[in-house]
Amino acid sequence: MRLENKVAIVTGAASGIGAATAQLFAAEGAHVLAVDMNETGLHETQAESQAAKGQIACLALDISEAQAADTIVDDAVSRFGQLDILMNNAGIGSNAPGESMPLEVWQKTLDVNLTASFRLCQAAIPHLKNAPAGRIINVASVMAQHTDYGLAAYSASKAGVTGYTRTLALELGKFGITANCILPGAIHTGMTAAGFANNEIADIWAKKSPLRRLGHPIDIARGALFLASDEGGFVTGHDLNVDGGMLLRT
Hints:
The chain is α/β, with parallel strands linked by helices. It has one domain: Rossmann fold (3-Layer(aba) Sandwich), CATH 3.40.50.720. The protein has helices spanning 16-27, 39-47, 68-80, 103-128, 152-172, 193-196, 199-207, 217-228, and strands at 7-11, 31-36, 56-60, 85-88, 135-139, 178-184, 239-242. A 7-stranded parallel β-sheet has the order 3-2-1-4-5-6-7, sandwiched between helices. Helix 1 packs across helix 8. The longest helix has 26 residues, at 103-128. 48% of the residues are buried. The model has no long low-confidence stretch (mean pLDDT 92).
């Protein structure tokens, strides 16, 4: 029970990494506010978790809305009385050449992947300062350090997440708050399921890893648990690559 008596917010919790993390945190003793704009998927996914046993509450909300951050943090604190862990996981992909990318695609990608995390951190920090050991975990991507065709907005947004998180780590360390990023590699999630349904594509990405497999949401959730727990208490300002060694081959 590494998170016993802790309270966590996990965004993007209707599927994939967010769902696995919310369930793992709850299994380790935390009370979790699971947030996602997909209300049906959110409730169905979290209801499936036998380990949670009522420790997961659900909030259906678009995190990119202007007042979403305050609503989410206020909901967690009013339900559970405190806030110890914020995991900004919700994100979207985009694929368009930088030269011809519509401004609305660029803006929406940054709004969800970067600005929403910024707003949630701002809303959460006053409460994290009151926690014995506050934790901020922002999910970026290996594409924060690398890129591919069509990923101008996505890579820029995830690189922004890592830069912002490092600055938070510097500024908040004196309050005992750690701030870290997780950089997933090729993970089989709801966002990537359509592409990886093609076995040829899945095999190509699996072979990029020395472990010769795609990652699974639980792989990322376990990294998040380390950063959220006392075991990760002396780790801050760090980009934790959970990519099966994929970047060793690029």
